[in-house]
Amino acid sequence: MKLPRDLQNHLATAKAAAQAGAVILQAYAGNRSELVIDTKMRNDLVSQADREAEQAVIRVLQEQTPEFGIVAEESGGKASQMATWCIDPLDGTTNFLHGIPHYAVSIALIAHAGTEVDGHVLSQDTPIIGVVYDPNRDEMFSALYNGGAWLNGQPIRCSQASSLAESVVATGFPFRDFSFANQYMPTLHQAIESTRGLRRLGAAALDLAWVACGRFDAYWEMGLAPWDVAAGTVIVREAGGISDDMYEQQPWPERGYIYAGNPKTAPELLALLQPHLVYPTQA
């Protein structure tokens, strides 16, 4: 199977879809008191802003790329044999609902094993397009498989930090699923002592985008969903960095146990994490 059309066309579609979703979010941002909010599980909220933004994203993707599957956070969906869009219409929902201007629309295209991309057949599922759009700063992060990464059209690269000791590192605390807290908390304590500083801003897609442009030197988090990390993963990779499964069992961190950084900070971060991990085959 060969992807139809040029990847640049699909990237343009993803950008247009992200902007369509962001229009909905920003329309609601000034009227948060009017939002109807549901609780999916403890500390896992969804509002009509999420749902309507997702539908706006899906409409654009379905109109422009009907051949691809779609999997989205709020409405689910179905993968296709060739490639599947992976959508988070509002990454940072809690920030959004509390008026904290740090959230994003995240869209990735995952090409499935056996699909021909950029002249060769993929042996494993691979994120090949990533878009993370921050509407509050009007920052559009994007990337193409083997094509580079950009912020508002300008090339970006990961930082040149040579060690965690000189790194500002992002993370995310357990907030809805606490089953992995016994793995996470020792890594947090060790990172506090091993880095220049830690940040927890509450939007994984932006954490990864900020790794890609060098604002953060590394990042790790546990218990995320595929749509939280898919776009950011390809953006980091195309910016010269590493974004992988901390268990080293998946071709990309689909299960949401992710570490990322530049070629020096990421391996050091993984070495910090690994002694505390309970591997899925052992659990």
In short:
It is built from seven helices and 17 strands. It has 283 residues and is α+β, with helices and mostly antiparallel strands. Mean pLDDT is 91; it is low at 40-45.
3D shape: globular
Please work out how many helical segments DSSP would assign. 7
Could you tell me how far the N terminus lies from the C terminus, measured between alpha carbons in angstroms? 37 Å
Mean pLDDT: 91
Sketch the topology as an H/E string, one letter per element. Answer: HEEHEEEHEEEEEEEEHEHEHEEH
EC number: 3.1.3.25
Organism: Paenalcaligenes hominis
Keywords: Hydrolase, Magnesium, Metal-binding
Catalytic activity: a myo-inositol phosphate + H2O = myo-inositol + phosphate
Features:
17 strands, five-stranded mixed beta sheet, 283 residues, EC 3.1.3.25, 27% strand, eight-stranded mixed beta sheet, alpha+beta
Describe it.
- Keywords: Hydrolase, Magnesium, Metal-binding.
- Belongs to the inositol monophosphatase superfamily.
- Its EC number is 3.1.3.25.
- It catalyses: a myo-inositol phosphate + H2O = myo-inositol + phosphate.
- This protein is of the alpha+beta class and 283 residues long.
- Helix content is 32%, strand content 27%.
- It contains seven helices and 17 strands.
- The strands form four sheets. It has an eight-stranded mixed β-sheet, sandwiched between helices. A five-stranded mixed β-sheet has the order 14-13-15-17-16, sandwiched between helices.
- Strand 11 and strand 12 (154-155) form a beta hairpin.
- The chain is globular, with a radius of gyration of 18 Å.
- The N and C termini lie far apart (37 Å).
- Residues 40-45 have low confidence and may be disordered.
